[in-house]
Amino acid sequence: MKILIVEDETELQDTIKKSLIKEHYTVETANDYTTAFDKISMYQYDCILLDIMLPKGNGLHLLKHLKQLGKSENVIIISAKNSLDDKINGLTLGADDYLTKPFHIAELTARITAVLRRKNFNGSTQVQIGNCTIDVLERTLEINSEMVHLNRKEFDILNYFSLNKNRLITKSALAEYVWGDHIDQADNFDFIYYQIKNLRKKLEDANAKICIETVYGIGYKLIEK
């Protein structure tokens, strides 16, 4: 799961980032309106934590931009502004929740969990594909009711495939989702190949009824056998 923090208070941004990384999220940040605008335009996120008052612009304008792009990212507004009008405007523009500063990090994490469960998984934390049960929040995989250990990147890859079952996923899209927007600095995608190879072996050894197909020269696709 990838989260973008749009927050200009450096200390708060750093605190949130460290906490979410401990929860195994991939985390990116933006300190001002322009940076956030560019990232939202170029990349996909599972959740965006959005401050309203930003250098160079207003967070509510970013919500409008998301709507214009037709994107459906989960958005939680985190703002010191506590007026009813601000909350109504944010929620009307498509925000999924609104949290007023100061707040406890534990509450923010709970809000993130809630919006992801509600919007992405219809209230459930689990995705069932074939004989595989993926618990997105617990970050576990069971095959035929037996637990299969995955490292962090293997789970992130499988989770991304589960959200895009039967869809072609390019190597660049997979790398950007799992490793973040600094992936464009990489010389090649060999590291993806090795993670996919290890994940395939674990699925095969556990007799999973799903497999990751290679679409040569382009990317991969998750299908049921």
Outline the fold blueprint:
Elements: E1 2-6, H1 10-22, E2 26-30, H2 33-42, E3 47-50, E4 53-54, E5 57-58, H3 59-69, E6 74-79, H4 84-92, E7 97-100, H5 105-120, E8 126-129, E9 132-135, E10 140-143, E11 146-148, H6 152-163, E12 169-170, H7 171-179, H8 190-205, E13 210-215, E14 219-224
Parallel strand pairs: 1-2, 1-3, 3-6, 6-7
Antiparallel strand pairs: 4-5, 8-9, 9-10, 10-11, 12-14, 13-14
Based on CA atoms alone, the radius of gyration comes out at: 18 Å
Task: Fill in the CATH topology of the largest domain.
Answer: Rossmann fold
Give the helix level as a range of percent: 40-55%
N-C termini distance: 26 Å
What does the largest sheet look like? 5 strands, parallel
Shape: elongated
Output the CATH homologous superfamily of the largest domain.
Answer: Response regulator
Show unreliable segments: none
Strand count:
14
CATH class of the largest domain: Alpha Beta
